[in-house]
Each structure stands twice: as structure tokens, then as C-alpha cells.
Write a structure and sequence with these properties.
mainly alpha, 2 strands, two-stranded parallel ribbon
Length: about 190
């Protein structure tokens, strides 16, 4: 007799890469600054687009943005940025591409001030994930008071494409909040720290 199919959050069922992302990454607490920077670039690029579009271009972003190394991205020249705008493997939006370099510089400033970006961002949720008890996709919020506060602070620090909706997506992706549905097999599997 075959094992029953695992129940997953319905948003993840579009294609294999989406399922893998849901099963292995989404909602797992991140404490690696390079991963935080990667998601800031990807989520900024996603603004107004679907996450599936960005997932399909993720490897292109990794190559184009120096493995998501903020020190390298912060040094990108205008000539490099103009070349990136011709790269079909990323979203070729001038404001988003230029924002990535700006955000790399701001990211380094936060690291200098707090010791790591991780120390900074986890302070907005008291150092541990917010675990929601959601039964349907309709219950998932686009923003929360925590994402509002984090977004406001990032904007004050000069970051771009960090509105509260984008930042809540970052919080979900990087495990600052667990928004897996309670019936999803990942809900209890995701580490609490």
C-alpha cells in the first residue's frame, strides 16, 4: 500500500521547484546573513510579480549578483548595472537592479552597527519565530505590525523595495514567522529557532 500524499500549503503546488522551495526552505529560521541578503534581493525583485517568476530566475540572480555577496554587490559600477539590465536571467527593471546595489551598501551598514544583519532582523520578533495557527490561505496576512515596524526602519535606513508586504514575505521565507497551514506537514517540522 502506497504512503499517503503529504498535505502541503496549496500555494506551493504549481511546479516542482515551488514544492522543493516549500518543503526545504520556506519558513525555516535563517541565521545566515548571505541568505538574508539573497532574499532581500529576490523579494525586492518580486515586487509586483509572482514568486514563481523569481524562483525560476533564482540561479540567474545568483550568478548576476555575485552569489549574493553584499560586499561584492555594493561595489558594482554603473557599467556593471547597465550590463545587468541586458541579462534575460533576471528581472530587468532598472529601479530594482539599482536598488540591489543600494541595499547591499545599507546591508553592510546594518552589519557594522549590529554585528550582523541577523541580529538586527530577529530583534523585530523578539529573537524567535512567530508561529501562527492558520487553517486556510485566506487567513495569511500580507503585513503585520512586525513587518510594518521592520519596513519602516529599513526605509529610514535608506533601503529600497522594502515595503511592509515585501518584508512580510521575507519574514515568512526566512522563518521569522511560520505561516505554514496547521495541516501542512511542514508546520510542525520547521525548527522553532
Amino acid at each position: 500500500m502506497a504512503a499517503p500524499e503529504k498535505f502541503r500549503c496549496p500555494w506551493s503546488l504549481g511546479f516542482d521547484q515551488y514544492i522543493e522551495y516549500h518543503d526545504k526552505e520556506w519558513g525555516v529560521p535563517v541565521h545566515d546573513d548571505l541568505v538574508h541578503f539573497e532574499f532581500l534581493i529576490l523579494e525586492g525583485a518580486q515586487a509586483g510579480l509572482s514568486w514563481s517568476t523569481i524562483l525560476k530566475k533564482r540561479e540567474g540572480y545568483r550568478k548576476a549578483f555575485a552569489g549574493f555577496d553584499p560586499k561584492k554587490v555594493a561595489r558594482f559600477t554603473e557599467a556593471k548595472l547597465e550590463k545587468l539590465l541586458l541579462n534575460p536571467d533576471i528581472v530587468r527593471n532598472r529601479l530594482k537592479v539599482y536598488a540591489a546595489v543600494n541595499n547591499a551598501k545599507r546591508f553592510l551598514e546594518v552589519q557594522n552597527e549590529f554585528g550582523s544583519f541577523d541580529n538586527y532582523i530577529w530583534g523585530f520578533v523578539g529573537g524567535k519565530p512567530i508561529v501562527n495557527k492558520l487553517k486556510t490561505l485566506k487567513e495569511i496576512k500580507a503585513t503585520t505590525p512586525e513587518s510594518d515596524a521592520l519596513s519602516k526602519d529599513l526605509i529610514k535606513r535608506g533601503f529600497k523595495f522594502v515595503g511592509s508586504t515585501v518584508i512580510y514575505a521575507h519574514m515568512q521565507a526566512c522563518g521569522l514567522v511560520n505561516d505554514h497551514l496547521v495541516d501542512c506537514f511542514r508546520y510542525h517540522a520547521v525548527p522553532k529557532r
